[in-house]
Amino acid sequence: MDRVLSSVQIAALLVSASYGIGFLFGSGELALTHGMAGSIYGFATGLGMLALAVVAKPLWQSGLSVWDLFGRAYGSQQRGLVAALSLVWMAGVLAAQIHGGVAVARLLGAPDPYGLIIVLVLIYAAAQMSLRIASGVFAGCLLLSGVVLVYTLVAADGLALYWQAVPRFVEDLDTFSPTQMGTMSLAVCLLVVTGADYHQFVMSGRTAQCAVVGCATAGLALILIGFLPTAVVVAMQTTGVLVDMPDGKQVIPWLLSRSAGHLSGSLGAAMLVALSLAALGSGAAILRAMASAISTTLPGIGRRRLASASALVIGAMLAARDQGIVETMVSVNIVYLASVGVCFSALLADINLTPQRARATMVAGLIASGGVYAASWLGLLSTQADASSLVAGLAASMGVAVGFGFVAGHRRTRMTRSSR
């Protein structure tokens, strides 16, 4: 591993990996109904980065991502299982990018379901491009959207609102139920801490101090950036221009297109194209990661294109569910965290689990949490579904872990007595 990154470079990479279409469009969507508290996703991501800074030094010293640590502690088969489980949260991120792409397609005039089909085809095509070329183009489009976002805030006289973001954020948090707020914050924070995609940057730091400072800087930057989309939406709401907004997922691309259009008529459409490219780029990046995980866990699907198509189908199925962007990501994050949470906690606490016990623990969490998620999808559970999914998964994992240990201990006692 090349350890060459400075703290500034680490911070920049962590921020760019976090600031995507889900972050931008999802925060704007939440702002329509939750005011400045719509920044909760960005704020929780920033807090997760600060928490990552706490564990950055031992992570850097180990030279292993959390999933490699799983493999070392529980065996190579468990590492493969965790790689398969990572498909869960990645599917949620992919679905968020699909949501964003469809929202832009609608603004460009593509009717349903053709907009969805077009987005899926373009994401698949983008995933086949050279990663170096694609990443530069898509990152540039996202950076352009950030510049226009700041311009929109200034034009809407929203700077005063932005400077008051923190107290307004705290004030508007009561628009979420305590359970909803706690579950969402926990799911986002924990995924940042356990995310192998973030760990690659941490472990590439020149020194452990660079890794720590880089994570802390990224956390503070994301908290500041996280208030921008919501401040723009709240500022524009006061003018009355968002009264007839049909779809909350469209609010940010619509506002950015409107602001760019005020400078020049053709720039409005150009802004939408740039945003669609950003969505395609984010979707393509996560699709490549999912395809790699599928190929690793299912050797029979060895061809990258077939694995990519399979991953895209999974993301499309999640996107077809009528959920908000942030809600989509959080719901599947919870299934993943409920599956690996107990084993990860045991790893941090230096509690030894056998490979069989670790596998049974993770599978139990997946079945219980996934079952609750499926029930909510089918409409059998309409309230506090995310909290129920998290509690059910962790309880099942803990029950199996403790029960497995009790049975193993009882067997060892019987064998000892019989040998006497």
Automatic annotation (TrEMBL):
It comes from the Bacteria. The chain crosses the membrane at residues 36-60, 81-108, 114-131, 138-161, 181-198, 210-236, 263-286, 306-324, 330-349, 361-381, 387-408. Keywords: Membrane, Transmembrane, Transmembrane helix. Gene3D superfamilies: Sodium/glucose cotransporter. The keyword Lyase does not apply. This is Uncharacterized protein. It comes from Hydrogenophaga pseudoflava.
